[in-house]
Amino acid sequence: MGRKLVASNKKARHDYFIDETFEAGLVLTGTEIKSIRKGRVNLKESYAKVDHGEVFVYSMNISPYEQGNIYNVDPMRERKLLLNRREIAKIERALSQDGYTLIPLGMYLNEKGYAKLDIGLARGKKLYDKRHDIAKRDADRKIDRVMKSRNR
To answer: Which residues contact 14 (CB under 8 A, 6 or more apart)?
Structure first.
């Protein structure tokens, strides 16, 4: 499949349990898509909300395009996400429950050249959950190392 990863939010999977993911299109200007193609996107500290039946992403930084001059827009502006009505309703129901939030997980360009954003319904992790994940990852690494040395 022709997916070119532009940006990922690694901290999201560390800080949250991701229950469900959605693929959303973005409403962008011409200079924004040129910056995205150059990989000048930052998803850290970004989040999404549902407002009046539409989903918007906030605090997503798309750096201004160098040759964009007067056509550049505010890099931190809110951007509309394109989702189906059923998906928006499902997200809205989940967000009405306590503890759920909507966060961007990654941005990529599909085979047609369109920018897509993976968003996830997430629940926050406690400190002990993060410690458990780190311990599990370390144990898996140790097992892999031992198996690799035995296979030599």
So the answer is: 125, 130, 133
